[in-house]
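Journal club prep, shared notes

We agreed each person brings one worked example of a sequence with its structure written out as tokens. Mine is Glutamate--tRNA ligase. I'm keeping it raw so we can talk through how to read the token line rather than staring at a rendered picture. Sequence first:
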Amino acid sequence: MSKQVRVRFAPSPTGPLHIGGVRTALFNYLFAKKHNGTFILRIEDTDQNRYVEGAENYIVESLNWCHIPYDEGPGKNEKFGPYRQSERKHLYKEYADKLIATGNAYYAFDTAETLDFHRKDHEEKGKTFIYNWHNRLKLCNSLSLSAEETQAKLDAGEDYVIRFKSPQDETLHLTDIIRGNITIDTNILDDKVLFKSDGMPTYHLANIVDDHLMEITHVIRGEEWLPSLALHFQLYKAFGWEAPEFAHLPLILKPTGKGKLSKRDGDKLGFPVFPLAYKDHQTDEISRGYREDGYFPEAVVNFLAFLGWNPGSEQEIFSLQELVQAFDLSRVNKAGARFDPDKIKWFNHHYMQEQDNNVLAEQFQMLFPDALKDIDINYISMVIHLIKERATFVTDFWDLGHYFFETPTDLDEKAVKKAWKEESPELMKKLLSIISSIEDFTVENLQTEIKGWITSKEIGFGKVMMPLRLALVGALQGPEVFDIMYLIGKDESIRRIDNLINTLS
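Then the structure, token by token:
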């Protein structure tokens, strides 16, 4: 690429960051890094009525947790700053005035009541009210008023907005990296408001001005902004600026594949739709987050990368660096991507196996402080080494391995029926004597002595190993029996076998 790639993620701080927003940020990040470019965070807070305190910090924390931090943005490498639109509002009026001066925009003084009247009137006639070329000369604006009348209203301090003057009878030929060529008839476009009566720009004006001033080369954003592409293209043309390249990402769909994924879907089906847990300060409602639910950021990123993109190979597991190398916008799909809660668990299970056992042990101990606070962290780490193959989350460790930390008090009824036979008490008593005689209590010695005894006496392995496992675990599950015995120790192993004999005899 001839230009230095510069992309931006531009969320609004109106609440928690949706997982779809994280994917948009991720694709921007991957594209930037693939081309040795810059990934920028810009906070689009022009809608002060919807601004939520703390939302910006939540966005930054989410990006950092996903290991996709921005290169430029609030408080970081601010050579094109400030990066909050509310701190740039002095810029936008100047550009709105330029559009008026060139005839590409105009003042509109229509009251909310007047516009509401026209909308209802059109609805009653089965039509849709559109403010554009076919009726703007009949409404109250600087196109229908004389220059003197317009100036008088401005001098009187009347409320106004500035609207873009969409052209009539033109055909726009646009290009989207993902969607290809797009043709639009300007006659169906409305004259969008660019500058509001509260002195703030709308998203349309602010984001075009900021993208130009920040030298953005590629705009990678969600499909919901595709209807705005025509206006944004025309604004670049009206200013005489070179437009960036556009790429509109497909929607993230519900698990059913029908409709856009929402928080309600997550609540209903039991999975998060936000990267981090979020507390609504008005309702005190706490929404679940992938971090707090026990997902690894690597799993979330790997999963999100495949929502609408494919590498053109069978490979599914990618490190972040591998994603950077493989990523290509030409391989992003147009069709919506179905969100699969089971698939992200599959990714999490994979990344669980790659985690350091000592780190997992510390996390496990923090989650179950009452049961594990006095247990050596190295012992916990050895337990995790044995059981994590079956785990998807750190919270699974207790169910998978609680018998390493406490003597089982309940026996699984089905396991008892299957494992405990008439000859079992006598066999377990003989087994106790074998175990008691083993001085060097290692996995290898246990295996050699016990299997040797079973073989020499021509006893079926199941007749010994099943009740032995039942004694140690309380059920017919868990890792290798000899590994369990080694970790809990000789005395505890003998005690548990003795307890089983006494309980079932």
